[in-house]
Specification:
single chain, alpha/beta, Rossmann fold, Helicase, Ruva Protein, domain 3, 5-stranded parallel beta sheet, 14 helices, 10% strand, globular
């Protein structure tokens, strides 16, 4: 259902309000819509704190240069939106504060024009318990025009049928249509992925695929590989709150990548399939939350 709605959003050029629990794949879905519309990796802009206007402006500022650079007038995709601004953490803003926040965001884009823009906002919540989502949608429609489509993103454990598509998406990583896509997963390995409980949600699957890329053997991923890379669901279930479980799993993968690359952060980010700035941000967050991390 979420993928069907995402295709509709791409076709209609709609803005997005993505709702789901931590790690459910809201950013992955937004990036998938961006790619479907012909967007390039460097025009998917991420802001992790909606209240940090300085950081948001910093993300938006390069749009003018992108629009003016040679070759930027490439043939657009069938439903082209050239830029996507993904803003996570919308649950930190009350419905009352949404309108002034959206107006400020709109003014930033007016100052730095660079092509058609999709706004993708994400809120960590149980969609069945968020009574004020309609109030959050209205300002986006008022200031940016068009429609705003709400997409409820279920946790991975409730949509195991999406695993092959997600694996392929993560295999492609930032390489898009070219570059190294990582090893394929055997059918038996796919079955093992479908049997797993995924306490770390879609983010855990993304990091597992990154680990397969890091292995770099070129052979198909086997059931034994999957078993080695995943802990027993019985050992993991209920030990940590979901958000903490996702972050702990992320950190283990980052540590592994840094060890394998001799602390080369550029190469580690490439192995993990994330941007260098995202790697530094995750390391900074871990340092703040865990004294003595090195």
């Amino acid at each position: 259902m979420a993928l069907t709605r995402a295709k509709e959003a791409a076709r209609e050029g709609a803005h997005l309000l993505l709702c789901g629990e931590p790690g459910s794949g809201k950013r992955t879905l937004a990036r998938w819509v961006h790619r479907l519309c012909g967007g390039l990796p460097d025009t998917f802009l991420v802001a992790d704190d909606p209240e940090d206007r300085v950081a948001i402006r910093r993300r938006i500022r390069p749009l003018r240069k992108w629009a003016e650079r040679p070759g930027s007038s490439r043939q657009p995709a069938p439903y082209a939106v050239s830029h996507t601004l993904y803003v996570a953490g919308l649950e930190r803003l009350s419905a009352r504060r949404m309108e002034p926040w959206v107006k400020a965001l709109h003014d930033m884009f007016e100052e730095e024009p660079g092509g058609a823009v999709r706004i993708a906002t994400a809120i960590c919540c149980d969609p069945t318990r968020c009574a004020d989502l309609g109030e959050r949608i209205a300002p986006l429609t008022a200031y940016f025009g068009g429609s705003v489509m709400r997409i409820d993103v279920p946790p991975l454990r409730e949509r195991m049928e999406d695993i092959p598509l997600l694996v392929e998406h993560f295999r492609r990583g930032r390489a898009g249509g070219g570059g190294f896509h990582g090893p394929v997963f055997s059918e038996e390995a796919m079955d093992a992925l479908r049997r797993y409980a995924w306490p770390g949600n879609v983010r855990e699957l993304e990091l597992l695929v990154a680990r397969a890329r890091m292995a770099g053997s070129g052979d198909p991923v086997t059931t034994e590989d999957v078993s080695r890379w995943l802990e027993s669901p019985d050992e993991r279930a209920g030990v940590l709150p979901l958000r903490e479980a996702v972050r702990a799993f992320e950190h283990r993968q980052i540590e592994s990548a840094l060890r394998r690359t001799g602390d080369n952060k550029v190469e580690a980010a490439r192995m993990l399939g994330i941007g260098l700035s995202s790697l530094y941000r995750k390391l900074d967050e871990w340092k703040r939350d865990h004294a003595g991390f090195s």
